[in-house]
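::Encoded backbone::
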Amino acid sequence: MITLGIETSCDDSAVGLYCSERKVLASLLATQLEHGATGGIVPEVASRAHLKNLPPVLRAALGEAGLGLADIDAIAVTRGPGLLGSLLVGLAFAQALGEAWGKPVLGVHHIEAHLVSNHLERDLVFPALALVISGGHSQIFQLRAPGDYALLATTRDDAAGEAFDKAAKVAGLGFPGGPVIERLATAGDPHAFPFPLARLTDGGLDFSFSGLKTAARLLWERVGPLSGQALADFCASYQSAIIRQLLDRLERALRGREAAACYLAGGVAANRTLLAAATARLAPAGILVHAPSPRFCTDNGAMVACAGALRLAAGRAAGAGLAPFSRGALKSWR
């Protein structure tokens, strides 16, 4: 069975092809450069760029896989959360293809797609815990089976990816901040600068990175601007503080819960320092720790196709009534 996946929740026009026997057949995207001058994503500009980008990206993905639309068994598309205009373009594109070629169209939650990105290269095992970390999300889920999810923790303010981006902006390192901070941190001392570990007064598992962001800004104002070894130390110390909070919550979430695996997902899961730290902490307890390859951590069409394939295998499908949503929690559908 071959599923076509379409992802347009933000500014990347992504198309993927997933085969349940051969896994990923193609995964391509067009990254928008139109927002560079504004310093942020302009929703109207993003939606118009998707209109232009989706057809050639689809043609390229089909060409890479050596397939035509007639070879596709189903179409999966991101419904939300995300930018409504961008989501509308992706949904309309998917529904038009489904109508023209007589293929079922399945709506996929963006967070579920990130969760199942771990299934693209190896089979998921259950029960498991998953840490979803990106520019907009920091969440922990309990995974009991495909489509059976329970939210254990979320962020009270800013997400981990946002924390990376803000520190990089303070230091003048550009956007996105995570990759450049990780690269500079490899030569730095993670103990050079003291950064706080946020703990909630109610003892909950939720994340909070607003205090860490403030601490980074105040430190920079006091000792910056930094360069060379001092900048590397700043990056290493700040990255270590983010990882420390992520693993603190993850280890606490594991207490009293059965888990054969722990999965990382979302853009920040591409951070190999985080993956190594999580493996070192959890593997001795017999817990498999896995993150997708970096290209599958960020938004991509293959993860959407995979999520759709799992839904289709369970008998779930939808037609022309699909509607986008800008916000909405991931709910179990099994």
User: Anything to note?
Assistant: The CA atoms of residues 135 and 161 lie 4 Å apart.
